[in-house]
């Protein structure tokens, strides 16, 4: 069983390498040829030195004359061979590096695209730290063998040439010497079997360390205000210590493999020497032949070691590859239809029998149904946790309903062509997210929108004031290396982003919670003149009173639907919710009066 | 038009320190921070020397065996047998020393790196950049992950090789000098320019590796955008654009890596070339000397053999130094985190630890301005006596959030001081401060765990019953009952399985369970429905009688219920007093209240 595992690792490892070679055949070939040049010139350089000694140095000494052309020729020969050797080294290093980096880049690009393709539900199940680890340490591990690979392949020429020469010289000695090959195979098998599980564990823990760091830094405010820095540090240290132990355990195996791999070829030479001396004594080989075979075996040790470097990287490579493939093979990307939505008029929205659950058996929405006429503004109201935000995600087709249909202008959103829904619907989520980009970039999202339109959107979102006061106005960088904005300012930029797309259906999920009431009021008034159907999740009376209609949601289903006044009169839950402040104020006033009364 | 309500909040937050430090200084400093690196280094070094000596001696020994054993007319079988066995034993000993050295190295370096990771992680939590600049957090992660990993490869083979190589270089030089001092001078003379040029190359390589590390950080930031912003990207159909941005970052990273690789590719073989020139030179000059009678042909041939002994360590050194630059680039980035002083630091042993109980907080002529920015808070002078319920109101940018950050010591005032029971906040131990004053921020960040674990974050060791009790006291028992898994409900990454309002409920319960002397609510119920909010406010009111409560709110319902309202406008307290009184006088509060009342009532 474990043998099967390790040979499977080997097979998979070679498949990974095969994939890399097929993807970038030219650069790989170039690197291999350079290595071959290196291999040949290595042999040539010792030959050149020998030639120089034989034909230039010794004759010069013998004749007591250092003026001969042979000396100049010898010097030229030595330097000339070295030039080619250097070129070989240069070519191999640069091309092997390029190969490795290109493969990593391919991986990172595909991962990015896959992260963008996979549905939100998938993202909820996968910690950010883990996904980043896929793009960093896993991508690096997967292509680790590419650095030593060209050398290993390139010097195979040396290997074959030396092996043939050995066999031609003395087949019996060759058999003795070649025993090191099964020995190396065996060593490698043991190595793969022992290292693979350890490497897998180390790579998992590397992701775990990244997860904790990511989460802890993201929750920094909570950690700090509750004084839990030390506890968090202890949590991190735990994972870091586990990673340390895993790396040490893997190091123990690697630490054994490397010296043994170096020792084996030399032991082979010794075996040849010992056995060869008996064959020499019995007259089967000449002294010259034995010396030549020993020399050839010394030559062999280099390619064998280069192969070992590749094999040594394989387990880690397979682990990284597998972890990345798990993401690349994940399914569940949204399927798009081919229907086109009409342009240029407010959307008509119809929600019919919609149910949705994040986890099977725990429905968040149950049989939700309502319709919105084009150009109307509808407020969706409901207690905390009643499923309102989930509803907005369904309307923007960020998720698909388990049952029922969400339709715009009579077309099921699932039938709409790619980018069709996002072209018609703009959702401003509760949680503001800004890109590490300029103000303009954050609003246009790369689309070709003229500045007048950007400013118009900013004006509508009541953001033109602070944006024009920014040091570089629309070109001010926000995010990592830029200006920090307040919560309310961020929300208004997110709103402007949605408005700039001139949506036919605009969905605001409590998108003005950090905006001052009077500013919010101005925003909402402005929206009335928009050529769009508007769905707004709201608690405030001012917002609700701007709506033509109210959908009241309770426990994941529509409890009532109608104009505000009607609901206020007939729906107890709704009344309770929207009049909470007034009732509180009345109670406070009553209490005060009581206190004042004798 | 709206500019009066909006103050540009251009915050220049603290950036990470980048102390210019040479490579050696970086290594020395890094070694100091991780003492594990040096522990037992002597033994490891001895093993390394044994392994290296083995590697050098064995081939020579074999050569000798061949020469001597086979040189006679018939092979000297017993001699060869004994010699081969001795060599085999030496090889095995060498391998054993190599193995022992590797294991010791792995143990020492991994332990040292784990320590470094832990120190950097802990220090990041002390940096205000973490709480002030949300966008930078992603970049900090790579400092405790990838950058540290980068160091390990080098530490596990490079560091020792360099020491061993230097030793080899000295030995080879001495041996060469024994054969011919003139030729030794020649060889050194040829290599000397290289020795001087090498540091220049190294600096070039170092710069490029630093760029590589930076581009790597950019790539991770771009990819993390596609993960963290997944909802917004889909909502606006921005997939293609985000993909393009990722591609650009990935390409920039690859270009930086390729550039670094090219520089190394060009510089590394230079040693090879210089070596060949040296050999050719020795051949020519050696012959000239030989003809003059200063050297015999035997010694010249032997000298040629010694040069390879001399060149090999030089080649190793160039190789290792290149790798080292990569490691040092990572090391520098980790150390730059540790170099950045914790601007808001714990006073340490000399700090005050206060007993729990009724708390008096005082702002004494407090002012605050971000570095190079205009003042955002001016001359704030206010005393909050024990058991008082205070509401802080004002428009966006009026300074109320800054007030909260100073009160919880997320920042220190630029002018004046904030005191707790007469003690300057800067002199109060963090443990004591965080126990007495707890803030509930607007964004109730939750950890990827269960509901119970998240609430327990406020008071480690609280039982499930206590947690359920706290929720019940806050009037949230019904909500808890409605959750599928009750207290064991998994909240998902960042708490995203719950709604924003629900996350705020958890954050509130968490702070409530922590049971501080002063509870600071920073718009802590902004996403909660009005009915629940009123219920919570009432519950808090009932159960927080014994403690001070400060609420920052733009829903003025909170202010109506407070004992005192602090009205902020453009960084100053412009009005204060009970709601009813403030309402009577014309001013900022009356205006705010009018617009609030307009917003909540039809």
Quick recap:
The complex is a heterodimer of chains A (598) and B (602). Chain A is of the alpha/beta class.
Question: How would you describe what is shown here?
Answer:
The complex is a heterodimer of chains A (598) and B (602). Chain A has 2 domains: 2-329, ABC transporter type 1, transmembrane domain (ABC transporter transmembrane region fold), CATH 1.20.1560; 349-435 and 502-591, 3-Layer(aba) Sandwich (Rossmann fold), CATH 3.40.50.300. Chain A has 23 helices and 12 strands. A 6-stranded mixed beta sheet of chain A has the order 6-9-10-3-11-12, sandwiched between helices. In chain A, helix 3 (69-117) runs antiparallel to helix 5, helix 7 (156-169) runs antiparallel to helix 12 and helix 11 runs antiparallel to helix 12 (287-329). The mean pLDDT of chain A is 84. By secondary structure, chain A is an alpha/beta fold. The radius of gyration of chain A is 36 Å and the shape is elongated. By secondary structure, chain B is α/β, with parallel strands linked by helices. Chain B contains 20 helices and 10 strands. Chain B has helices at 23-33, 41-71, 77-124, 128-132, 137-144, 146-179, 181-228, 230-235, 239-292, 297-339, 400-407, 430-436, 451-456, 464-473, 477-482, 500-514, 530-543, 557-561, 579-584, 588-600; strands spanning 361-369, 375-384, 389-394, 415-420, 423-424, 437-440, 518-522, 548-552, 564-569, 572-577. In chain B, the strands form 2 sheets. Chain B has a 6-stranded mixed beta sheet with strand order 6-7-8-3-9-10, with helices on both faces. Chain B is elongated, with a radius of gyration of 35 Å. At the A-B interface, helix 2, helix 3, helix 4, helix 5 and helix 9 of A face helix 2, helix 3, helix 4, helix 5 and helix 6 of B.
């Amino acid at each position: 069983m474990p043998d099967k595992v390790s040979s499977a690792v080997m097979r998979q490892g070679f498949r990974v390498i095969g994939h890399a070679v097929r993807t970038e055949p030219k650069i790989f070939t170039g690197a291999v040829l350079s290595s071959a040049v290196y291999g040949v010139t290595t042999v040539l350089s010792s030959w050149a030195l020998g030639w120089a000694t034989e034909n230039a140095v010794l004759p010069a000494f013998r004749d007591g004359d250092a003026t001969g052309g042979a000396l100049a020729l010898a010097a030229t020969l030595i330097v000339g061979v070295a030039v080619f050797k250097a070129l070989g080294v240069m070519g191999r290093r640069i091309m092997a590096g390029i190969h490795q980096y290109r493969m990593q880049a391919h991986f990172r690009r595909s991962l990015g695209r896959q992260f963008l393709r996979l549905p939100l539900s998938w993202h909820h199940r996968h910690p950010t730290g883990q996904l980043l680890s896929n793009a960093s340490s896993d991508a690096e591990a997967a292509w680790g063998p590419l650095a030593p690979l060209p050398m290993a392949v390139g010097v195979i020429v040396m290997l074959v040439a030396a092996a043939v020469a050995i066999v031609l010289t003395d087949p019996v000695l060759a058999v003795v010497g070649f025993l090191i090959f099964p020995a190396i195979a065996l060593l490698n098998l043991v190595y793969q079997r022992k290292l693979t599980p350890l490497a897998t564990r180390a790579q998992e823990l590397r992701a775990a360390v990244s997860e904790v760091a990511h989460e802890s830094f993201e929750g920094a405010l909570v950690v700090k205000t509750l004084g839990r820095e030390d506890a968090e540090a202890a949590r991190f240290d735990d994972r870091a210590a586990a990673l340390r132990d895993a790396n040490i355990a893997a190091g123990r195996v690697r630490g054994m493999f490397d010296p043994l791999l170096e020792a084996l070829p030399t032991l082979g030479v010794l075996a040849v020497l010992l056995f060869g001396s008996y064959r020499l004594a019995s007259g089967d080989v000449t002294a010259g032949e034995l010396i030549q075979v020993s020399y050839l075996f010394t030559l062999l040790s280099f390619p064998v070691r280069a192969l070992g470097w590749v094999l040594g990287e394989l387990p880690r490579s397979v682990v990284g590859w597998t972890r990345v493939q798990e993401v690349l093979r994940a399914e569940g990307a949204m399927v798009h239809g081919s229907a086109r939505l009409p342009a240029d008029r407010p959307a008509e929205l119809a929600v019919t029998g919609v149910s949705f659950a994040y986890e099977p058996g725990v429905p968040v929405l149950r049989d939700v149904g309502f319709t919105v006429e084009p150009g109307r503004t509808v407020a969706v109201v409901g207690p905390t946790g009643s499923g309102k935000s989930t509803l907005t995600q369904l309307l923007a087709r960020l998720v698909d309903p388990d049952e029922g249909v969400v339709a715009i202008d009579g077309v099921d959103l699932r039938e709409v062509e790619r980018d069709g829904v996002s072209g018609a619907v703009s959702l401003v989520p509760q949680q503001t997210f800004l890109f590490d980009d300029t103000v303009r970039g954050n609003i246009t999202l790369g689309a070709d929108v003229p500045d007048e339109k950007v400013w118009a959107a900013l004006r509508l979102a009541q953001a033109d004031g602070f944006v024009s006061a920014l040091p570089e106005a629309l070109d001010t960088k926000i995010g990592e290396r830029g200006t920090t904005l307040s919560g309310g300012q961020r929300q208004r930029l997110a709103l402007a982003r949605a408005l700039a797309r001139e949506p036919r259906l605009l969905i605001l999920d409590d998108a003005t919670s950090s905006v001052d009431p009077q500013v919010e009021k101005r925003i909402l008034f402005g929206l009335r003149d928009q050529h769009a159907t508007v769905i707004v999740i709201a608690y405030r009376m001012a917002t609700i009173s701007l709506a033509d209609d109210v959908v009241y949601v309770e426990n994941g289903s529509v409890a009532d639907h109608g104009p505000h006044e009607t609901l206020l009169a007939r729906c107890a839950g709704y009344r309770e919710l929207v009049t909470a402040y007034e009732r509180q104020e009345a109670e406070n006033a009553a209490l005060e009066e009581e206190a004042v009364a004798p | 038009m709206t500019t009066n309500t909006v103050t540009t909040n251009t915050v220049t937050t603290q950036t990470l320190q980048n102390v210019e430090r040479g490579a050696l200084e970086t290594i020395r400093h890094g070694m100091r921070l991780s003492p594990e690196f040096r522990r037992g280094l002597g033994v490891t070094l001895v093993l390394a020397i044994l392994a290296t000596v083995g590697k050098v001696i064995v081939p020579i020994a074999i050569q000798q065996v061949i020469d001597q054993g086979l040189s006679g007319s018939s092979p000297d079988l017993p001699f060869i047998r004994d010699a081969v066995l001795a060599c085999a034993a030496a090889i095995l000993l060498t391998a054993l020393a190599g193995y022992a050295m590797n294991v010791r190295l792995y143990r020492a370096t991994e332990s040292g790196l784990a320590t470094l990771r832990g120190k950097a992680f802990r220090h990041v939590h002390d940096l205000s950049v973490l709480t002030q600049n949300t966008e930078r957090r992603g970049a900090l992660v790579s400092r405790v992950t990838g950058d540290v990993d980068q160091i390990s490869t080098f530490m596990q083979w490079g560091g020792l090789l360099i020491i061993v190589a230097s030793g080899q270089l000295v030995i080879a030089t001495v041996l060469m000098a024994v054969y011919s001092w003139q030729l030794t001078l020649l060889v050194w003379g040829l290599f000397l320019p290289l020795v001087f040029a090498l540091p220049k190359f190294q600096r070039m390589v170092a710069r490029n590796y630093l760029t590589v590390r930076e581009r790597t950080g950019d790539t991770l930031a771009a990819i993390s955008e596609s993960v963290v912003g997944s909802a917004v990207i889909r909502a606006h159909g921005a997939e293609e654009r985000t993909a393009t941005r990722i591609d650009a970052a990935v390409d920039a990273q690859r270009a930086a890596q390729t550039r670094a690789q090219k520089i190394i590719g060009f510089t590394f073989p230079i040693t090879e070339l210089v070596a060949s020139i040296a050999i050719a030179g020795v051949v020519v000059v050696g012959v000239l000397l030989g003809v003059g009678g200063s050297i015999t042909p035997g010694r010249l041939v032997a000298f040629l053999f010694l040069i390879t002994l001399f060149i090999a360590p030089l080649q190793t050194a160039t190789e290792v130094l290149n790798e080292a630059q990569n490691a040092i680039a990572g090391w520098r980035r980790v150390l730059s985190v540790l170099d950045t002083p914790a601007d808001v630091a714990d006073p340490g042993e000399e700090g005050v630890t206060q007993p729990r109980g009724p708390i008096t907080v005082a702002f004494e002529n407090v002012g605050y301005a971000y570095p190079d920015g205009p003042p955002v808070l001016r001359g704030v002078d206010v005393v909050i006596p024990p058991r008082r319920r205070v509401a802080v109101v004002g428009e966006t940018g009026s300074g109320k959030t800054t007030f909260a950050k100073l009160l919880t010591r997320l920042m220190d005032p630029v002018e004046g001081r904030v005191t707790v029971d007469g003690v300057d906040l800067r002199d109060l131990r963090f443990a004591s401060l965080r126990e007495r004053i707890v803030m509930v921020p607007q964004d109730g960040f939750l950890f990827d765990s269960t509901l119970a674990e998240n609430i327990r974050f406020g008071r480690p060791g609280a039982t499930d019953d206590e947690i359920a009790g706290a929720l019940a006291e806050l009037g949230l028992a019904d909500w808890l009952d409605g959750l599928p898994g009750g207290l064991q409900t998994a909240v998902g990454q960042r708490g995203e399985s719950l709604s924003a309002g629900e996350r705020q409920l958890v954050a509130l319960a968490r702070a409530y369970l922590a049971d501080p002397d002063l509870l600071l609510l920073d718009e802590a119920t902004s996403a909660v429905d009005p009915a629940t909010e009123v219920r919570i406010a009432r519950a808090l009111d009932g159960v927080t009688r014994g403690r001070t409560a400060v609420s920052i709110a733009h829903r003025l319902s909170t202010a109506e219920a407070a004992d005192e309202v602090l009205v902020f406008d453009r960084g100053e307290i412009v009005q204060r007093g009970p709601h009813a009184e403030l309402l009577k006088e014309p001013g900022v509060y009356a205006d705010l209240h009018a617009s609030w009342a307009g917003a909540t009532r039809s």
